[in-house]
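Usage

Read records sequentially. Each one opens with the input sequence:
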Amino acid sequence: MEIINPDVGGIDVGSRSHFVAVGQSLSDVKEFGVYAEELTQLCEWLLSYGITSVAMESTGDYWQNLYTELLRHGIEVVLCNGKFTKHAKGKKTDVKDSRWIQKLHSLGLLTSGFLPDETTEKRSVACPERRQTGAEPQQRQELLRIRPHHQHPGRQLPQVNEEAGGG
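and closes with the structure output:
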């Protein structure tokens, strides 16, 4: 396959360290820590190789500080779902993973997942209905169904009603 993105890197994100590949040889991979100073060093190392874009998995919450620091240094970030970067053969190592992500990105095979912009985030916070997902609407229906049973003539149970989301 033809290389579409020549100046790209791949990052295997971890809780204690990040492995960064700027090419396919072992000398093209370097490990960095997760603290602010180390993230700055990571970005500077990428820029010293002329890297303009990196791909990385959105692993837990570990990607967030790195993502912010990369953007701060003017490096484009393709944040991928891990299911698109996993490879089936061979023993999994952080070095292999970072090289694999770099290769997929250089071949143009990775796309970034949805990241809401600041305006979308503000709307989501301001509009509680947008935040309801999964079982929450079902819970609301159940609360509305059982609320009358918490208020019997002569003995109201306001505490239970309040704890169940009522008023």
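Summary fields computed downstream for this record:
- The chain has a mean pLDDT of 82.
- Residues 132-167 form one domain.
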